[in-house]
Amino acid sequence: MLTISQVASAAGVTVRAVRHYHAKGLLLEPERDHSGYRRYDAAAVVDLIKIRILADAGVPLSRVKELLDAGDDDFKTAVAEIDKRLRLEIRELQGHRERIARLVHGDGLALPPEAVAYLGRMRELGIPERIVEGERDAWILVAAQQPQSMDAYIRSKVGQLDDPAVVETYKQMADLLDWQPGDPRLETIADQIVAQMNAVSDEDWTAYVDGDQAMPDELAALLDSMFVEQVPVARDLMRLVEKRGYTGWTKLERIEK
């Protein structure tokens, strides 16, 4: 006869595990000897080994008793079901690993690769990090609400970065973050923004307003509110742009005359 320590050692488990299996009803508790100690036989070792093998294979303890008592056919069916569940869990864990791996790149946590590449391009062009971070936060909102449109949106933005005037405006916007309402330099920024919008062809403008690049009004309003909250001169700049024929900010629209 074996003590609890001996039976645990023989089965390759801990004493704590043996007691846990008793509590779960997986292993019958033997009678105690005259000294009050549990005494186990070889059959208990065999049962413990079976429990350990099933638990190590990922079988939930709630199913172990069922499998121990099952016949051959029922055992095979139950194991197949458990295997299916484990494969699903493995796929989920692989997805988690991919997301964790994207943390190395910072921006990739909540953004698709094309958006991460766009932000990288902004950095390559020397656009200040404060502006890049603002763009990143805005894209996170867009990706969450319009994931199906991200590719079209990014294509449009990438094309704009080929224009040196757009890049220069981005750089100037970094200084603008610290300006206060009423700053006279806003007039120049408004002129530059409107000049860029006026340079958009009618075909591209139609795609921007009505095509796959068109952004829902609700999302544009949310992004506009973020701009207003974070930039002290946002309202002033939007008013100056509106005086020059365009309303809004994220989704600038021509004012019909």
Oligomer: single chain
Number of domains: 2
The helix content is: 55-70%
Identify low-pLDDT runs. none
**Overall body shape:** elongated
Structural features, described:
- The protein has helices spanning 4-11, 15-24, 42-56, 61-69, 72-102, 113-124, 129-145, 150-160, 164-176, 186-198, 202-210, 217-230, 234-243, and strands spanning 246-247, 253-254.
- The protein has 257 residues and is mainly alpha-helical.
- It folds into two domains: 4-101, Orthogonal Bundle (Multidrug-efflux Transporter Regulator, Chain: A, Domain 2); 108-254, no CATH class.
- It has a two-stranded antiparallel sheet.
- A hairpin with a 5-residue loop joins strand 1 and strand 2 (253-254).
- Helix 1 packs across helix 3 and helix 9 (164-176) runs antiparallel to helix 10.
- The termini are far apart.
Ordered list of secondary-structure elements with their pairings:
Elements: H1 4-11, H2 15-24, H3 42-56, H4 61-69, H5 72-102, H6 113-124, H7 129-145, H8 150-160, H9 164-176, H10 186-198, H11 202-210, H12 217-230, H13 234-243, E1 246-247, E2 253-254
Antiparallel strand pairs: 1-2
Task: Give a quick summary of the entry.
With about 260 residues, this protein is mainly alpha-helical.
Which short descriptors sum up this protein?
13 helices, 2 strands, mainly alpha, 257 residues, two-stranded antiparallel sheet, Multidrug-efflux Transporter Regulator, Chain: A, Domain 2, 2 domains, 67% helix
